[in-house]
Specification:
- This protein has about 230 residues and is mainly α.
- It has a domain of about 60 residues.
- It is built from 10 helices and no strands.
- α3 packs antiparallel against α4, α5 packs antiparallel against α6 and α7 packs across α8.
- The chain is elongated and about 60 Å long.
- The termini are far apart.
């Protein structure tokens, strides 16, 4: 009965985790996130409950583990160090570089994130998630937060390869707005609008920026309203 209980419990937990993660995977892909990151999450979600059940059956009931100290969760810095060690041994692992770029971005280290995404693009030149990540990290690493040069080129290519990539369209519109290419920014953000939940804060922000750009067009050259959009927020 104990064995049956653990197997049944682990199966139910795995199923519940899968139900939770599948929508996250789909949303992540729409946002341009790496497929490998979410695939790894699903594998872990499915393997962890079954592995835990097997461990309990091997060493005894959870009560017998009461005196064992639980492992401490890994910090972001520790995770980065682990990734760096892995990439030192396997420098041609694009998923490892992608994870490192995302970790640096989470840690607000945009210059290092840009470098990590650059390694991905060296290995996989058409990786859209890396293109978008590189462009965003580059803008955050700059003092003026502008999206220009290679960043703009990458966003234009990303939006061409994945026309429904929300992050690519948002950032490309910002770049066009910064360059006072207001009609282009309007067109880009209008492509983004149908992809968003119309009641979301993001959709409202996009609609507001379209209105600002339209006002700039109506004002004509030299008569644009004050204010600009210097960052990627």
């Amino acid at each position: 009965m104990t064995t049956v209980f653990y197997l049944a419990a682990s199966a139910m937990l795995a199923f519940a985790l899968a139900l939770l993660l599948v929508p996250l995977v789909r949303q992540g892909r729409r946002d341009g996130r790496s497929r490998g990151v979410f695939a790894l999450a699903v594998v872990v979600a499915l393997a962890l409950p079954t592995g835990s059940a097997a461990l309990y059956m091997l060493v005894g009931t959870p009560a017998t583990l009461g005196g064992v100290e639980a492992p401490k969760p890994m910090s972001l810095d520790q995770g980065i160090e682990a990734l760096l060690a892995h990439l030192k041994a396997s420098p041609d692992d694009p998923e490892g570089w992608m994870l490192l770029g995302q970790a640096y971005a989470m840690g607000k280290r945009p210059a290092e994130a840009r470098d990590a995404y650059g390694h991905v693009l060296t290995l996989l030149p058409d990786n859209v998630a890396a293109m978008v990540g590189w462009a965003e990290a580059d803008s955050l690493a700059r003092d003026d937060h502008r999206i220009d040069g290679r960043a703009l080129d990458l966003l234009e290519r990303a939006a061409s390869l994945e026309p429904a990539n929300q992050r690519a369209l948002w950032l490309l519109g910002i770049a066009q707005f910064q360059k006072e290419r207001y009609p282009d920014a309007i067109a880009t953000w209008q492509r983004l609008q149908p992809l968003l939940d119309p009641d979301s804060n993001v959709a409202h922000a996009v609609a507001k920026q379209i209105a600002v750009a339209q006002a700039r067009v109506a004002a004509g050259p030299g008569n644009a309203a004050t204010g600009n959009m210097g960052g990627t927020r």
